[in-house]
Design goal:
By secondary structure, the protein is an alpha/beta fold. The chain has a domain at about 1-80 and about 195-235: Rossmann fold (3-Layer(aba) Sandwich). Helices cover about 30% and strands about 25% of the residues. The longest helix has 16 residues, at about 165-180. It starts with a strand and ends in a 14-residue tail after the last helix.
Length: about 240
C-alpha cells in the first residue's frame, strides 16, 4: 500500500474568529490524486491555505509523512515537499519566464527541460517578463515553477479558472500527463467537476466547511444526481468564449 503523505485529522480552521473548516479529515497517499469539489464559498481554497499554514488552526492535526506539521511556519512547508499553485498565480512580474522557473528550483525530476517539455509555449517565451504573458501563459508558469521545487505533493487551487477553452485543454493534458506518466501526487481544487473527476483517482465534496461525501472519482462521475445536489454541474463547454 502506498505511503500516506498528507493526513488531516478533525481540522477546524479559519480566519480570526471566523471558522471556515470544521472537523475536516482526509488523506492523500503517494502517487494518488484527490479532487476537492464543492460550490463557491464552502472552504475549498481555505483547505489548501490551511495545509500551507496560512489560516488559524484551532483544532485537529495536519500530518506530513506521519509528522505533525500543524504549527510549522508556511515557508517551511515547501521545504518538506509541499508545492502550491495559488489562484493568484503569484509569479514574479519583473523576472523572465526562465528566471521565474529557476529562482527557487530544487534538484529532482522536474528541471527546465522537463517543464519546457510539459509546456512548450513557455520555452518559446523563456525571455519574456512575467507581466508580458497572457493569463494562460502565467498559469502554465505558475504550475511549472511549483514543479521546479520537485514537490512530493502538488496543491492546485482552481488552475483552470478564467482561462480560454484552448488553454484549459492544454493545462488539462499537462495535469493528466503529470499524474498518469510521471506519477505526480496532486490535490486539486476545481470548479469544473467533470474535468476534476477525469484527472483524479479519489474525490471529496465539501459543504459548509465539512466533508459530506467521499468516493472514487469514477464512481462520483457516474452519479449525476449527487453531483447536481452538492455541486451543480459546471461544464467547460458552457464557458463563454473570449477569456484570457
Amino acid at each position: 500500500m502506498a505511503e500516506s503523505l498528507l493526513v488531516l485529522e478533525g481540522v477546524r480552521a479559519g480566519y480570526g474568529d471566523a471558522v471556515v473548516l470544521d472537523d475536516v479529515s482526509l488523506e492523500v497517499r503517494e502517487h494518488e490524486s484527490l479532487a476537492v469539489l464543492g460550490r463557491n464559498g464552502v472552504g475549498k481554497s481555505t483547505l489548501l491555505l490551511t495545509i500551507m499554514g496560512y489560516t488559524q488552526l484551532s483544532r485537529g492535526r495536519i500530518l506530513w509523512r506521519g509528522d505533525d506539521i500543524s504549527r510549522l511556519a508556511p515557508h517551511q512547508r515547501p521545504q518538506r515537499g509541499l508545492g502550491w499553485v495559488a489562484q493568484e498565480r503569484e509569479i514574479f512580474p519583473s523576472l523572465s519566464v526562465e528566471e521565474n522557473l529557476t529562482v527557487a528550483a530544487r534538484p529532482g525530476r522536474w528541471d527546465l527541460q522537463a517543464v519546457y517539455g510539459l509546456f512548450p509555449q513557455l520555452a518559446d517565451r523563456r525571455r519574456a517578463k512575467g507581466n508580458h504573458l497572457s493569463g494562460g501563459e502565467q498559469q502554465m508558469l505558475a504550475v511549472g515553477r511549483s514543479l521546479m521545487l520537485n514537490p512530493a505533493l502538488l496543491l492546485l487551487d482552481e488552475p483552470l479558472e478564467g482561462l480560454a477553452p484552448i488553454i484549459v485543454e492544454e493545462l488539462t493534458r499537462a495535469i493528466a500527463r503529470m499524474t498518469a506518466e510521471e506519477g505526480a501526487t496532486i490535490l486539486l481544487v476545481e470548479q469544473h467537476a467533470d474535468i476534476a473527476l477525469e484527472l483524479t483517482d479519489q474525490a471529496v465534496v465539501l459543504e459548509r466547511g465539512a466533508v459530506v461525501h467521499r468516493a472514487r472519482s469514477g464512481e462520483l462521475q457516474r452519479d449525476a444526481a449527487l453531483l447536481d445536489r452538492f455541486i451543480g454541474l459546471k461544464l467547460v463547454e458552457s464557458e463563454a468564449a473570449g477569456q484570457t
